[in-house]
Amino acid sequence: MPYTNVFLQIKENLQVAYRQAIDSDARLDELRKAGHGKFVAIFTEDQGFTESSNRFLPYVQELVAEFDAMQSSTHVAPETLEAFVKKLATLLQTLQVFKLSK
User: Rounded to an integer, what distance in angstroms lies between the CA atom of residue 88 and that of residue 13?
Assistant: First the structure.
């Protein structure tokens, strides 16, 4: 498979995103209990996600499903991989900003 090293890196980044999403969702729960965080979705449609949630974990799950589909595909178009990587980067950057905004 031509993207073996890229897929390994993506898998590692998805694991990081998952752990950070769990922590961030717990923090969002605390903020909601305090009367904050009254938003509907973290990402907008133009950011590439089909999911719409006020939690991070559903977005990670969407990326994992897409990644599984790419891995089982016999041919992955470079554009598909590029779009996926952009979404993953957006998620990781947003998680990092949220983490630092304590």
Answer: 8
Calpha distance 51→81 (Å, rounded): 18
Cβ neighbours of residue 99 closer than 8 Å, sequence gap 6 or more: 20, 23, 24
Block means of pLDDT (10 residues each) for the chain, 102 residues, are 85 97 94 83 91 96 97 90 96 95 76
d(CA 91, CA 102): 18
Query: Is residue 76 exposed (0-12), middle (13-18) or buried (19+ Cβ within 10 Å)?
Result: middle
Give the integer Cα–Cα distance in Å for 1 and 29. 41
